[in-house]
Amino acid sequence: MDDMVKPIIPRVEAEVVAVKHLTPHMQRITVGGAALESFLRTEDVETPAAWVKVFLPSGEGRAYTIRQINRENQTLDLDFVLHHNEDSYSPASSWAFHAQKGERITLAGPRAGGFALPDDAAWVILAGDVTALPAIQNIAANLPATVRARVYVEVPTPEDQQTIQSPAALSVVWLEPRQRPGLALGQRVLYRPFPLGPGYVWVAGESRIAKELRAHYLRERYLERHRVRTEGYWKVGKADHREG
Ligand SMILES: Cc1cc2nc3c(=O)[nH]c(=O)nc-3n(C[C@H](O)[C@H](O)[C@H](O)COP(=O)(O)OP(=O)(O)OC[C@H]3O[C@@H](n4cnc5c(N)ncnc54)[C@H](O)[C@@H]3O)c2cc1C
After folding, report:
1. Helix, strand or coil for residue 146?
2. C-beta 38 within 6 A of ligand 1
3. Residue 110: is the preceding peptide bond cis (ω within 30°)?
4. Mind listing the domains of the chain with CATH numbers?
5. What are 50-102's pLDDT values in tens digits?
6. How far is the CA of 49 from the centre of ligand 1 (A)?
């Protein structure tokens, strides 16, 4: 294939079949519809932390994790963080807050989540803010029982904590936000000793903390590149942020 030709990302129409207020800052939108059948058969859809670009009825698109798939009903769950921004309009968060059954959206993808656990990993660190919680839940559910996982999640309020299920042995630390997004997370995980043996670190959340932790693990802790994956899921003050 010509290197200059970008692969076409398939798009499917989906319909909102249920809306559930999970926690104060998280709204679950379950989508279904006949067109999803082929989408649910694609290879990447069940990779841990797989995501889609959701095109809202307004036409604007934002990235969301496929939290879970229900194959019997041919539906998938997308968990939207409800963030209240006084300074700017946030199309996806606002839409999710008001979403109604029967509304139609378009999904582009699925895209692989980029979680690539090395075969020799004895431990894994999963760290993120509330936007990463659906991905962390999805990753945790798919971990092998042989690894030990340490999970750190910064959530807006204690009521935003959720159950994280996994076949692996998990220790979960919930963190309360401090002066800026990700600060509490950073302060908690920086310089913590690693468990014994080779491992893997996965971080997602606000862009600045994702970058800070990447630099820390690669340059100060000397982890090899294939043992660190960080994702800037959003950026303070920037709409529809995409990491370069
Ligand atoms: C691969 C991937 C997977 C993702 N998965 C999820 C997911 O499962 N659930 C989820 O909720 N988000 C997820 N995100 C993050 C989500 O795409 C962004 O938060 C997105 O910007 C939200 O769109 P919006 O229309 O609400 O706000 P935008 O229009 O993009 O931004 C408007 C303003 O709101 C601010 N803002 C955006 N997001 C937040 C936030 N979370 N908290 C506070 N301020 C914010 C921006 O800085 C900007 O000032 C994911 C991102 C990526 C790249």
Report:
1. coil
2. no
3. yes
4. 11-111 (2.40.30.10), 123-234 (3.40.50.80)
5. 999 999 999 999 999 999 999 999 999 999 999 976 666 799 999 999 999 99
6. 15
